[in-house]
Design a protein that fits this description.
Layout: E1 2-6, E2 17-24, H1 31-39, H2 43-49, E3 60-64, E4 73-81, H3 87-103, E5 107-112, H4 114-119, H5 122-136, E6 155-161, H6 165-193, H7 201-215, E7 218-222, H8 224-229, H9 233-239, E8 247-254, E9 261-266, E10 268-272, H10 292-306, E11 312-322, E12 333-336, E13 342-345, H11 352-365, E14 370-375, H12 379-385, E15 390-394, H13 397-410, E16 414-417, E17 434-435, H14 443-455, E18 460-464, E19 470-471, E20 481-482, H15 487-501
Parallel strand pairs: 1-6, 2-4, 2-5, 5-6, 9-11, 9-14, 10-11, 13-17, 14-18, 15-16
Antiparallel strand pairs: 3-4, 7-8, 8-11, 12-13, 15-18, 19-20
Helix pairs in contact: 3-5, 5-6, 6-10, 7-10, 9-11, 10-15, 11-14, 13-15
The structure holds ligand BES, manganese (II) ion and zinc ion (ZN).
């Protein structure tokens, strides 16, 4: 779907569908709506007067366009009561409406943007429209081979019509950013939705290399032998049970001369069976999404390259399967991380922290000055916050403030979780420096404390996205399946860093 911005009048655009907005309780409609209504012989005004169009939020009226307009149909969208318009509300509405428009086979839609930019910052509105439309129309249907399972109804193109030329230029700037944000989210979804047999560590590495070729990112794949030389014993212990070679993916965006480097680190377990501490069968298929953190950081750095963000970023995705076999790591085994920390593996299903330990150590060795990791780390996180908020653990208040701002811009809510030193007692081992499980109480926190040990004093944030990894239904910009959360938060955060450095 292509999104363009037109600065004339909507009635001069040749399209399949015109879309206009009306507020609840308004007696007058916008100039653009009035121009369209002239072509309809005043039907819209009459229907409003008769109470047949109320303008309530979620209302959608479909009219034939007749002969005098350059479109076939007119969609009249209710905005609810005037006042209190927000970009969050617009994102939600645009997502839901885009799917309804698609189901009506809207084709080329010309949307009046006049009522929107009267209430909201034009650039933000353009960005929000593009990201919500791009995200909400996402479908993962590539493995349906029957045509009937792949609907052809579509929004082929959208023209946002903003009569004011200065505002139109701002909307256009926003659309460009929003499209990149939406497409990056959809890339993360594509990686995570793909079943594990078709998204092995090798395939993930190939996708990262392809992204690098498209965007100018630098890409380095650390193979098993090099990981051994680097003494990444914690990461490699997870790969022991798998026939698939592990791939430690490193992507780099050099957007600023000199200066500090932000590391985005994502858990890349392409399938988590639990290993020898095997998981129950129910819903185990979901664990094809256990590389959602890796997908998010790869997609985010791709977006930063496309946006030419003036910031240095390194994305690190330690990828491997976690499977049981005769060569798999066993409960009680002791392994050594890259930084020399010894770890007693009490539960092979607590593998995420094992791969992240070496990834965090590697990021620090690369000179990163801020670390943000993203991981489907614990079921306990999903129990605590459900699918609404991501739990974020941070060792630095300023970093939390910046992340909160970025998350608010993205509409991906976060909640700060604690990191008290007393939780460390639960992960001290009798035979090694640390053990990889702290028992049932505070399971998400002890997992975070494990990572905290490797981050140390370096400003660090940990996103436990286990609860928000998957959506059960379409809602606003979200669609059923793997979510692509928090790609946009990461991008906004890095863009904020770039602005702060200017
Ligand atoms: N990948 C899982 C966590 C998970 C669960 C993510 C559900 C998304 C949805 C992780 O590797 C795991 O198995 N964690 C264990 C840790 C425990 C053994 C300490 C868990 O949460 O049970
Ligand atoms: Mn696990
Ligand atoms: Zn896992």
């Amino acid at each position: 779907m292509e999104i363009t911005v037109g600065s004339g009048s909507i009635t001069s655009v040749v399209a399949d569908t015109y879309a206009i907005q009306v507020y609840e309780g308004d007696r007058h409609i916008s100039a653009e709506a009035t121009a369209i209504d002239a072509g309809l012989g005043g039907t819209i005004a009459q229907m409003i007067a008769d109470g047949l169009i109320k303008g309530t939020a979620g209302e959608l009226t479909v009219l034939p366009a007749g002969r005098r307009l350059k479109a076939k149909r007119v969609f009249i969208v209710g905005l609810g009561k005037r006042g209190g318009a927000t970009l969050d509300g617009m994102r939600e509405r645009t997502g839901n409406l885009s799917r309804r428009f698609r189901d009506l086979d809207a084709g080329h839609v010309a949307t009046s943007f006049q009522e929107i930019t009267a209430a909201l910052d034009p650039e933000g509105a353009g960005r929000t429209y593009a990201e919500a439309a791009t995200m909400s129309l996402y479908r993962f249907d590539r493995h349906h081979t029957r045509a009937a399972d792949r609907p052809t109804y579509a929004i082929e193109r959208v023209t946002l019509v903003e009569p004011n030329a200065r505002k139109a230029a701002a909307v256009r700037r926003g659309v460009e950013v929003g499209r990149i944000l939406g497409e990056a989210t959809n890339m993360a979804r594509d990686l995570a939705n793909e079943p594990a047999n078709l998204m092995t560590p090798t395939i993930m590495a190939a996708r990262a290399q392809q992204l690098a070729a498209e965007t100018g990112l630098e890409c380095k794949i650390i193979e098993r032998a090099e990981a051994e030389r680097l003494k990444m014993g914690s990461y490699l212990s997870v790969a022991n049970g798998s026939q698939q070679p592990p791939k430690f993916i490193v992507l780099r965006h050099r957007g600023a001369r000199g200066g500090r480097t932000l590391a985005l680190i994502g858990k890349g377990i392409t399938f988590d069976s639990g290993g020898i501490s095997i998981k129950p069968a129910l819903d185990m298929d979901r664990m094809k999404g256990d590389m959602s953190g890796a997908a998010a950081v790869i997609a985010a750095i791709g977006a930063l390259a496309r946006l030419k963000a003036r910031v240095n970023v390194i994305a690190i995705a330690p990828c491997t399967e976690n499977l049981p076999s005769g060569t798999a790591t066993k409960p009680g085994d002791v392994v050594y991380a890259m930084d020399g920390t010894s770890i007693e593996v009490l539960n092979t299903d607590a593998e995420g922290r094992l791969v992240l330990a070496d990834a965090i150590a590697y990021a620090k060795a690369q000179g990163a000055s801020t670390l943000v990791d993203v991981a489907t780390l614990t079921g306990a996180m999903g129990v605590a916050l459900g699918g609404v908020r991501t739990g974020v653990f941070v060792n630095n208040d300023r970093l939390m403030a910046d992340l909160e701002r970025a998350a608010a811009l993205a509409g991906e809510p976060v909640w700060r979780m604690p990191l008290d030193e007393d939780y460390m007692e639960q992960i001290r081992s009798d035979v090694a420096d640390l053990k990889n499980t702290g028992g049932a109480p505070a399971g998400a926190i002890t997992a975070a404390k494990f990572l905290h040990h490797f981050a140390g004093e370096t400003p660090w944030a940990h996103f436990d996205i286990a609860g928000v990894m998957h959506k059960a239904a379409d809602k606003g910009p979200w669609v059923k399946g793997m979510s692509g959360n928090p790609v946009r938060t990461l991008v906004h955060f890095a863009l904020g860093r770039a602005r702060a450095a200017e």
